[in-house]
Amino acid sequence: MALPVKSLTSDRVLSTRLADLSTAGSCFVVAPCRGTVVRAYSVIANAITVANATWSLEINDVAVTGSTVTVTQSGSAAGDVDICTPTGANLVKEGDNIEFVNAAGSTDTCITHFYAVVRPF
Questions:
Q1: Above pLDDT 70, what percent of the chain?
Q2: In the chain, what is the straight-line distance between the N-terminal and C-terminal CA atoms, in Å?
Q3: DSSP letter assigned to residue 80
Q4: DSSP sequence for 18-77
Q5: What fold is seen in the domain 12-120?
Q6: Measured on CA atoms in the order 113, 38, 119, 29, is the torsion positive or negative?
Q7: pTM
């Protein structure tokens, strides 16, 4: 049996949860080290209807460039993953807050899990 390939990356994956994607609000994680937010993900717990929902990232209340994501309601289902790759204003230092800002838009209560990938430097 072949052994899995060992990952050489030191990326840190941070997670948080929002109680309802269909209600405007925010959830937060704390940066554990100095680094760059290289990706962010959301995964929904159930389908949303009527309209798309959107979310974005902020670091210490400053918008992260290239982080606006649309969660499409058409054909949505539990487990749908959406992703962004920030392009600017995405540097963190230990203790910075990383905020997932939900602008809502959809209907149906939908628990949503968020993940930020921080690459230390």
A1: 93
A2: 35
A3: -
A4: ES-TTS-EEEEEE--SSEEEEEEEEEESS--BSS-EEEEEEETTEEPBT--EEE--TT--
A5: Jelly Rolls (2.60.120)
A6: negative
A7: 0.91
